[in-house]
Amino acid sequence: MSRGLVSIVGAGPGDPELITVKALKRIQSADVILYDRLVNDQLLAEAREGTLRIYCGKAPGLHAMTQEMIGRILAAHAAEGKQVVRLKGGDPFIFGRGGEEAIVLAQAGIPFEVIPGITSAVGTSASSFIPLTHRGVASSFACVTGTGSDGNVSSVRWDLLAHSVDTLVIYMGISQLPQIQQALLYHGKNGCTPAALIERGTTSQERIITGTLAELHSLALSQNVSNPALIMIGEAVRVREQVIQLQLAANTSLTG
Ligand code: SAH
Description:
By secondary structure, the protein is of the alpha/beta class. Helix content is about 35%, strand content about 20%. The chain folds into 2 domains: about 5-115, Tetrapyrrole methylase, N-terminal domain (Cobalt-precorrin-4 Transmethylase, domain 1); about 120-240, Tetrapyrrole methylase, C-terminal domain (Methyltransferase, Cobalt-precorrin-4 Transmethylase, Domain 2, 2-Layer Sandwich).
C-alpha cells in the first residue's frame, strides 16, 4: 500500500480565489478533507465527487471536535494510504493550530506537509486598502490574538504593543473589544489613532468600518459587528480614506 500523506493546507481569508495553486491541487486530488468553519464552501466544491468531507469546525467557545480527535482521524486515514487534506481558514500556522497538528503527525511518524495560505490580516489589508506598512507612516506591524486560550482577554503585552508597533492587527478580538481598547488607552496609546473593524473580509459580505481607537467599542456595538472580524489600529488606516477620496475625485472629474 502506498503511504498516505496529510497536507495541512491554508484555504485563504474567504474569497475562494485567494488560495494558492498548490492548495487547490491538493483539494482536487484529496481522498479525505477535514475542514474548519471558516473554509469557503466553493473550495470544498473543488473536491472530487467521492471525496470524504469531514467538518471539524469550531464556533468561538464551542469545540465540535477535540484536537485529539482531529489528530486521530488524520492519522487513521493517512495510515490507510489516503491523501488527506486538513483545510484551515487563512494560514494554518497563524492562529490555526496547524503547529499542534504537525507535532501530532510527526510523533506518529505520518508523512505530512504544510501549504501556506493568505492570512486574514493580509487578505483584508488588500481588500480594505489599509496597507500594513506604508512609507513614512508605518514600518512595522504585529498580528496578535485578542482572546487567550482561557477565553478571556489575551495576555499579550498591550503595554509594549501600544508603543512599539505601527499597525496592530487583532484576531479574535471582537468579544474582548472593551478590554482591548481600555488596555491600549491605559498604556498611553492615543485615542485618536485611526482604527478599523473588518468583518468577513474579502468575501461578498465584507464590511469595513473605520473610526478611532477611542470609538472602537461603540462602533462595534452600533454597527453590530460579528465574527469573523479583525481589528486594525494605526495611522496606516488613513490610507484607505485617502485612496477612496482620490478615486472619487478622479471619477468625478472623468464624468463631470
Ligand atoms: N488561521 C486564520 C485565523 C484563524 S483565527 C488566518 O490565518 O486568518 C479566527 C480569526 O481570524 C477570527 O476571529 C477573525 O479575527 C480572523 N478572520 C478570519 N477570517 C476573517 C475574515 N474573512 N475577515 C475578518 N477576520 C477574519
